[in-house]
Known about the structure:
Layout: E1 2-6, H1 10-22, E2 27-32, E3 43-47, H2 48-57, H3 59-67, E4 70-79, E5 82-95, H4 96-109, E6 113-116, E7 133-136, H5 143-146, H6 149-152, E8 154-158, E9 162-168, E10 175-182, E11 185-193, E12 199-205, H7 207-212, H8 220-230, H9 232-235, E13 240-241, E14 256-260, E15 264-265, E16 268-270, H10 285-302, H11 308-338, H12 348-355, H13 368-378, H14 382-404
Parallel strand pairs: 1-2, 1-7, 2-6, 4-10, 7-16
Antiparallel strand pairs: 3-5, 4-5, 8-14, 9-12, 9-13, 10-11, 11-12, 15-16
Amino acid sequence: MKIACVGGGPAGLYFSILMKRQDPSHEITVYERNAAGSTYGWGVTYWAGLLDKLRAGDPESARAIDEASVRWTDGVAIVRDERTVHRGDKGFGIGRRRMLALLAERAEALGVRVEFEHGITGPDAPELADADLVVAADGVNSVLREAHTADFGAEVATGRNHYIWLGTTKVFDSFSFAFKETEHGWIWCYAYGFSGEQSTCVVECSPETWTGLGLGTMSEADSLNVLEKLFHDLLDDHPLIGRAQDDGAAQWLNFRTLTTRAWHRGNLVLLGDAAHTTHYSIGAGTTLALEDALALADALREGAGDDLDSALTRYGRRRRAELLSAQSAARYSAQWYENLPRYMSLEPRQMFALLGQRHSPLLPHIPPQLYYRIDRVAEQLEPLRRLKRWLGPRMARALHARTRG
Length: 405
């Protein structure tokens, strides 16, 4: 096939690698509007399960990503001024720029043509005219998807809270949180390392706190100064950095959750953030995008004797089903933070325990103190643990059906 992949993020590059490994005769071009080495964001997170899938897809790039990643197992939270520690599963962090460089290098070594500073303005672009397959991996603002909005059935829900994506020279050896109470309400930070020199810090707060602190009207320098003072104990007085590159000031945003009813139209198929987004608080965006690439490559391989439409239909059906649990977890996680004051009267240790339970569809409907006690008992009683596992997904489906209806 002749394949045109629009967008040189992790999903687009990894998909091109998988297809070249399947059949070196595929003619694949990745079009990326930014220059090589230019990317937004700082580090990305993932978990051990993803590495296993990447090793099965392409051992060489998986090994390179593994070697370039940092690891942690503990979660640390500073609530007001009290520090608590939670032992958890092994997590991984890697710089987004580093990951993209590794994937681009691997893709080019396999014979993929990666064209940087080559934007595609729409589905009628001449570069796409004779492609057998066009992959829209051009992000949440995908121009290819937006050209056929009715066919893809995209819906966007905008979150209530404000957030800003920052870096710091403080190197965290655990996934760390800090929750600070101000006269205008709570503000909090998620922080994790992604290299031996830098870490990611995501700061979030309600619109009332954001307005009250004046963060919406300050310059970037003044805003960073306020945040550095608020989180000085988390940062150990290291500075915050607005941008990884000199490409403008860091922006306060409201997260946009994107869902789509269909994932392909003719020979145009959606991949990664062009098809879906999940709230950053579950740390799954890059993982889900790479899993999309794996699923699309699998569908094309398994349907090699079928028509393209059938293969793309199977891909979309499979991934929409697989995403349900992650989308549910992300929805409840975002709502937990939007209702943070509900949990802040708990002792820090109890609050941190419920932070780990924020994906539960039961939690919003049970008083936090009671939920904490039930959860502690459930750890000791297998029948109650089974009931909790049984009831949670059913409540989630019922509530999801109600909100969609």
